[in-house]
Amino acid sequence: MEKDPAPPHDNADNNGGVSNLLSKEIEGYTQSFLEKIKTTDIYLNYLEQVKKIKNYPDLLQQINEYRDESFMIQNKYEGEELYDKTEELSAKYEKFLEIPVVDDFMNSELALVRTMQDINMYIVEGLDFQ
Predict the structure, then answer these.
(1) What CATH code is carried by the domain that includes residue 34?
(2) Cβ atoms within 10 Å, residue 49
(3) Which domain holds residue 43?
(4) What 3-state DSSP class applies to 55?
(5) Among the residues of the chain, which ranges form H helices?
(6) Which of the four pLDDT bands, split at 50, 70 and 90, describes residue 119?
(7) Region of residue 7 (left: phi > 0; alpha: psi -120 to 50; beta: else)
């Protein structure tokens, strides 16, 4: 049986997905928490930087190429080879990453990603998740 496509920005897959697993109480708390996150300086700065970088489609394309290369390196190499490939990538994109609008976007994205990682770790540690 084919799955129905999920509506936009719905976490459920219409066949027992995330929203169906959350109790209404937890879902309400989660929604409130998301609304709080959306008011933080880190998130608001990220949205502002997204708006700015979208004015430069060529730079955004290069950012995506950088991300793809970085992801591939991080998942393909280990140890000294990982270090070497990371250094090569940094050298290749050094001038590009110094462009102010690129630097601002990448830093705002990194701050948001680290915040999400911290939130995840806080939850996992708080639940004594093994």
Answers:
(1) 1.20.1500
(2) 21
(3) 22-123
(4) coil
(5) 18-21, 24-37, 41-53, 57-76, 79-97, 100-126
(6) very high
(7) beta
